[in-house]
Amino acid sequence: MTAPSTSPDPSVHDAPYDLVGIGIGPFNLSLAALADSVPGFRSLFLDAKPAFSWHPGLLMEGTTLQVPFLADLVTMADPTSPWSYLNYLRHHERMFKFFFSERFHIPRREYDHYCRWVAERLPSCHFDAHVTALEWDEAAEAFAVVHRSAAGEQTRVLARQVVLGVGTDPVVPEPLRPLLTETHAGRVLHSADYRTHRARLGAASDVTVIGAGQSGAEVALDLLRHQDGDGEGGPYVRWLARTTAFAPMEYSKIGLEHFTPDYIRYFRALPEATRERLIEEQWQLYKGVSEETLGEIHDELYERTIGGGEPRAALHPGVEIVSAEPDGADGYVLTCRHGQEESLFEFRTSAIVSATGYAARRPDFLDTLDGLVDWDGKGRYQVDGDYRVALDPRVSGALYVQNAEMHTHGVSAPDLTLGAWRAAAILNAAAGRTVLPVAPRQAFTTFGAPQDAASVPERTVAAAAAPAATAVSGPAEIRR
Q1: In the predicted model, is pLDDT for residue 454 greater than 60?
Q2: CB burial string 27-37: b at 16+ within 10 A, e below
Q3: Given this model, what pLDDT does residue 297 score?
Q4: Are strands 319-326 and 332-338 parallel, antiparallel or unpaired?
Q5: 192, 194, 404, 470: least buried by Cβ within 10 Å?
Q6: pLDDT (mean) for 348-365
Q7: Tens digits of residue pLDDT in 105-158
Q8: Contact 442, 427 (CB under 8 A)
Q9: Strand partners, 316
Q10: Looking only at Cα atoms, what is the longest distance across the chain?
Q11: What is the arithmetic mean of pLDDT over 42-54?
Q12: Residues 6+ apart with CB under 8 A from 168
């Protein structure tokens, strides 16, 4: 196994790296782990943080990944890699404990620890390296990556290819943004910071959680568990969401085939307008809640009704926040709209947790490369099948992105399931050869029209869709 990093500072190399990764989250860490086994392939991965961390604000006890442990950093692309989760267990002498636990979905805290174990041992991963500029050096025919340490030391390295894995930024509804100030710290926050303020929120009299995804459900559940056995102590918990239901995430075996290379290829070939519509329609594939978490919330609420009691909680789907205003020194008034009823209502709350997801961000260091990136009409990356960003033809190097391509590749972009597969696709493209073979077909589902079916002329389709001239209106036929 590769030993912990003892390599010298990356600035000592004059020759360009084959690949430099900016950001070390799970996706770029996956790429670093897979690239580690490629002879002669020089890679470097940089991150501003002092060490690896993954959503630290949501690492509560009892929370688990929503994907199986096989969706680790490497297994779905290379199950023989020394950087697999199973080898992590072996290294920590926990194989029998894991075997007897019969876990398919591992604790989120353990996944974070596993990733940190890998990051600390990969010689290509360097932390305390804040990238400040990314430029195209025409003379060197390479990207120049400038990064700075916390001590102020600046380093410039060259790379033939760069992959952006800078992560995402928390998204907060517009009415709440003016409240994200020091004055309201710990009382109005995104769920990404929940663990930091957990004790204070648990002691509040009334907490409103916004968002129907997994994070919102886990925050609501954790706050319910801050109540005592009779539900008298702890905060009143109010859970709001714009979606028409607190719905489970799609987890059927056939439904999960949307997270395969087959679906990505199908999705990429669709018109842009169709892709945009599908992403909105498929929210339960990536924004729903696990059935287990929904069940645990129901169990907590049921416990409160024993002996004729009422839960100190309320669940309101189909609701949108219209405005949020401070109400004195210790509370807020939220005005909401119920979408289906088209009605307005308001209530007072002591604290607000916005569990409203994340969005891909454009890092500041790209400003120096702005004129060379071919953005689409909405200012997003144009990404090809190998996750390569469209650039000005003058740039002979390649720029790749991870988790910033939902608009071109579909709902699997932020999902850990395809992380190793995507990293393998990028690695093959960056190496200019097949380093890790990728199977062409993985799904039973055929997402497009059958390839062996005869096509029908458009005029025939139009004629079939037109109503018959002799049709007579009448009662609807009963569906049988």
Answers
A1: yes
A2: bbbbbbbbbbb
A3: 97
A4: antiparallel
A5: 470
A6: 94
A7: 999 999 999 999 999 999 999 999 999 999 999 999 999 999 999 999 999 999
A8: no
A9: 240
A10: 83
A11: 97
A12: 358, 359, 360, 361, 403, 414
CA angle, corner 251, sides to 167 and 192, nearest 5? 30
CA distance 195 to 218: 11
Q: Measure CA of the first residue to CA of the last residue in the chain; give whole Å.
A: 62
The angle formed by the CA atoms of residues 200, 116 and 411, to the nearest 5 degrees, is 80
Residue 470 reports pLDDT greater than 70:
no
The span from the CA of 398 to the CA of 20, in Å, is 11
Dist CA 326 CA 321 (whole Å): 14
Predicted confidence at residue 461, as pLDDT, reads: 55
Tokens at 355, concatenated: 């569990």
428 vs 404: CA distance, rounded Å: 19
Confidence of residue 28 (pLDDT cuts 50, 70, 90): very high
Q: Is the pLDDT of residue 402 over 90?
A: yes
Is pLDDT above 70 for 4? no
How much of the chain, in percent, has pLDDT values that exceed 90?
82
φ, ψ (nearest 5 deg) of residue 283: -60, -30
Q: What is the 3-state secondary structure (H, E, C) of the chain?
A: CCCCCCCCCHHHCCCCECEEEECCCHHHHHHHHHHCCCCCCCEEEECCCCCCCCCHHHCCCCCECCCCCCCCCCCCCCCCCCCCHHHHHHHCCCHHHHHHHCCCCCEHHHHHHHHHHHHHHCCCEECCCEEEEEEEECCCCEEEEEEECCCCCEEEEEECEEEECCCEEECCCHHHHHHCCHHHCCCEEEHHHCHHHHHHHHCCCEEEEECCCHHHHHHHHHHHHCCCCCCCCCCEEEEECCCCCCCECCCCCCHHHHHCHHHHHHHHCCCHHHHHHHHHHCHHHHCCECHHHHHHHHHHHHHHCCCCCCCCEEEECCEEEEEEEECCCCCEEEEEEECCCCEEEEEEECEEEECCCEEECCCHHHHHHHHHECCCCCCCCCECCCCEECECCCCCCEEEECCCCHHHHCCCCCCHHHHHHHHHHHHHHHHCCCCCCCCCCCCCCCCCCCCCCCCCCHHHHHHHHCCCCCCCCCCCCCCC
Nearest to 350 by CA among 200, 147, 228: 200
To the nearest whole number, what is the mean pLDDT of the chain?
91
What number of residues does the chain have? 480
Cα–Cα distance list, 437 to 89, 124, 423, 430, 440 (Å): 26, 23, 12, 14, 9
Whether the per-residue pLDDT at 467 is higher than 70: the answer is no
- 226 with 234: CB under 8 angstroms? yes
What tokens does 359 get? 């969005």
- Structure tokens belonging to residue 326: 């401070």
For residue 9, give the amino acid letter: D
Contact residues for 261 (Cβ-Cβ < 8 A; gap 6+):
418, 421, 438, 439, 440, 442
